[in-house]
């Protein structure tokens, strides 16, 4: 049970800008010391990781702000990578309105670069305006979950998947079998927030994390549509770094892969880096299982550890460290 003291402390941390203000103060202090003392990039990386740990460890106790102002705690699905689930994050009416906006934006008269034909069906990805009341409210809710301000988010996207189409993807490190990672140190996407805007009654369309380890909890056992406990990550090292099972094998009925069914209004938050901002090569890999029939819609937003228009200082530090060790 979360204590009132913990919630009060975390609420005050969020009101003060969370770990962002701490990072800025640390950068400013490091800049003032640089003229008179040697820099310690390893300590700076440790500071960034420690602050991120504080943010991520406490952020989910804040939950989302519902219309009833009721505190809702996300459900932990996996610890490696950290995956959280929030049921009824959006109402059915909100989901329908977002789908209508996305369909209108993807129409032929709209920007044709937003429309994509998949290999086995049609799908699209569109960027919706953040000035609309609906999208602005959803973006605010997404950032409350991660405790990063909206200025740390990328474009708000809605993605459509049709039958037989497993993935529309321009994410980082796309694989032929459509498993991918959302981030690396350069991209700096500390977290991904994804909301299912529709259910898939005919089956398929799960978000699959083959090597994520499902936690054993009574709450998660009661949650509907959570399948598999996670494959043994050692199978990659046994067969080589290039070994990745085909998507059909990962999404099958008897697969051990962790799979999360699309349910309308359900939100997922998963961290692409560990608390020290190291990205795993295996457990963070994920993909979309093919939709058996019908259509699946999702809304997503990538959350970065640096603001729009600001440099990725952590990537710069690591690049400098690598050059010094060469």
Describe this protein's structure.
- The strands form three sheets. This protein has an eight-stranded antiparallel β-sheet with strand order 3-4-12-8-14-7-6-5, with helices on one face. The chain has a four-stranded antiparallel β-sheet with strand order 10-11-9-13.
- It contains nine helices and 14 strands.
- The chain has one domain: Sandwich (Jelly Rolls).
- The N terminus is likely disordered.
- A hairpin with a 2-residue loop joins β3 and β4.
- The protein is globular.
- α3 runs antiparallel to α9.
- Helices cover 33% and strands 19% of the residues.
- The protein is α+β, with helices and mostly antiparallel strands and 326 residues long.
- One of its GO terms (cellular component) is endoplasmic reticulum.
- This is Prolyl 4-hydroxylase alpha subunit domain-containing protein.
- Pfam families: 2OG-FeII_Oxy_3.
- Keywords: Dioxygenase, Iron, Membrane, Metal-binding, Oxidoreductase, Transmembrane, Transmembrane helix.
- GO terms for molecular function: iron ion binding; L-ascorbic acid binding; procollagen-proline 4-dioxygenase activity.
């Amino acid at each position: 049970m979360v204590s009132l003291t913990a919630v009060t402390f975390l609420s005050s941390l969020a009101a003060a800008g969370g770990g962002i203000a701490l990072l800025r103060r640390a950068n400013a202090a490091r800049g003032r010391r640089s003229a008179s003392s040697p820099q310690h990039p390893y300590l700076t990386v440790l500071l960034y990781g420690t602050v991120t740990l504080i943010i991520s460890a406490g952020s989910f106790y804040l939950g989302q702000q519902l219309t009833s102002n009721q505190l809702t705690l996300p459900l932990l699905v996996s610890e490696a990578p950290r995956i959280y689930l929030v049921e009824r994050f959006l109402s059915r009416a909100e989901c329908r309105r977002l789908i209508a906006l996305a369909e209108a934006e993807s129409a032929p008269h709209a920007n044709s670069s937003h429309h994509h034909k998949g290999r086995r069906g049609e799908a699209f990805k569109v960027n919706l305006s953040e000035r609309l009341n609906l999208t602005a409210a959803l973006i605010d809710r997404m950032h409350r979950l991660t405790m990063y301000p909206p200025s740390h988010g990328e474009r708000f996207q809605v993605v459509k998947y049709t039958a037989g189409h497993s993935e529309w993807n321009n994410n980082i490190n796309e694989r032929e079998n459509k498993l991918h990672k959302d981030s690396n140190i350069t991209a700096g996407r500390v977290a991904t927030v994804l909301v299912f805007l529709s259910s898939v009654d005919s089956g398929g369309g799960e978000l699959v994390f083959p090597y994520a380890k499902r936690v054993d909890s009574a709450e998660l056992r009661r949650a509907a549509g959570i399948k598999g406990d996670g494959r043994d990550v050692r199978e990659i090292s046994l067969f080589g770094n290039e070994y990745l099972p085909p998507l059909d094998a990962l999404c099958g009925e008897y697969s051990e892969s962790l799979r999360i069914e699309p349910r309308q209004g359900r939100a997922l938050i998963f961290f692409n880096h560990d608390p020290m901002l190291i990205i795993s090569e295996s457990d963070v890999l994920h993909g979309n299982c093919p939709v058996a029939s019908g259509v699946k819609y999702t809304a997503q937003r990538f959350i970065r550890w640096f603001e729009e228009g600001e440099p990725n200082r952590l990537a710069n530090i690591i690049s400098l460290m690598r050059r010094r060790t060469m």
